[in-house]
Design a protein that fits this description.
It is a single chain. With 250 residues, this protein is α+β, with helices and mostly antiparallel strands. The protein has a domain of 84 residues. The chain is built from five helices and 14 strands. The protein is elongated and about 95 Å long.
Length: 250
């Protein structure tokens, strides 16, 4: 009778290493598959987004990225937690130079449609976005000739050339309070300065009337409704939201 005896110590020590290598290889394959699937889905969604306003007839293409890991669980379930869509220097509702950054939360795309790049509609639970209108375009929309808008640490700053008796043509400037009603933005200037000096009280009212203004923000895509605005270094930034929408892409 043969007695094989206990396994050699060297053989026993090799098994943990073989198992570890196999596990690492499997994890690596899953990561690669995850990224490949994500890339295919991003391409499918980007193709359709590019065919929609505001990317149609635009030199700026949509940048689409699907956030979250692991991606495969989202793809198999057909629901994506966060699809980010961004574009720069867009023309939206006849307003030029708009920068758009949108996050689509809960986007429903069946796996087969994504893999076949056959995405004809995008049911979406929620969309949040920011859209930044350049100050030059915002000033144009007020219809006030010579108006200049800028950012003063998050506050809208207004400057306008005015003609003042005894002083001639000077620049009036002031920070402004902003009010939002739907897509309609209005602002009212506060303490006005003329060439850096406080404006005489007798002139303040007339200059305020020249400087105060209103403008209509562009109608944003994806059924977005503007909820807030603020001044930023690059323009007037609108924050917007939409809930339970369907973006038709066919």
């Amino acid at each position: 009778m043969n007695d094989l005896g206990p396994a050699a110590p060297g053989r026993r020590r090799r098994w943990p290493w073989i198992t570890a290598i196999a596990v690492l290889a499997l994890v690596g394959l899953l990561i690669v598959a995850d990224r490949i699937t994500a890339s295919m889905a991003e391409s499918a969604v980007a193709k359709r987004i590019d065919q929609q306003s505001p990317f149609t007839d635009s030199s700026s293409k949509a940048h689409v990225s699907i956030n979250g890991f692991p991606f495969l669980t989202q793809a198999v379930g057909g629901r994506y937690d966060d699809i980010q869509v961004s574009g720069s220097a867009l023309t939206i509702d006849q307003v030029s130079g708009v920068n758009l950054n949108a996050h689509m939360h809960g986007v429903h795309v069946p796996l087969s449609n994504a893999m076949n790049r056959d995405v004809r509609s995008l049911p979406i639970d929620h969309v949040t976005a920011t859209a930044t209108v350049p100050f030059s375009e915002a000033a144009r929309l007020t219809g006030i000739d010579g108006l200049q808008l800028s950012d003063n640490h998050g506050t809208l700053h207004v400057s306008l050339g005015v003609s003042v008796p005894t002083m001639g043509d000077v620049t009036a400037s002031a920070d402004a309070n902003v009010h939002l009603d739907g897509n309609r933005l209005s602002y009212q200037v506060g303490q006005i300065e003329l060439e850096g000096a406080p404006v005489p009280a007798a002139l303040a009212s007339a200059i305020e009337q020249e400087m105060n203004g209103t403008l209509t923000l562009p109608q944003l895509p994806y059924h977005l409704q503007v909820t807030a605005v603020r001044a930023t270094p690059t323009g007037i930034q609108a924050t917007a939201r939409a809930d339970h929408i369907v973006v038709e892409t066919s």
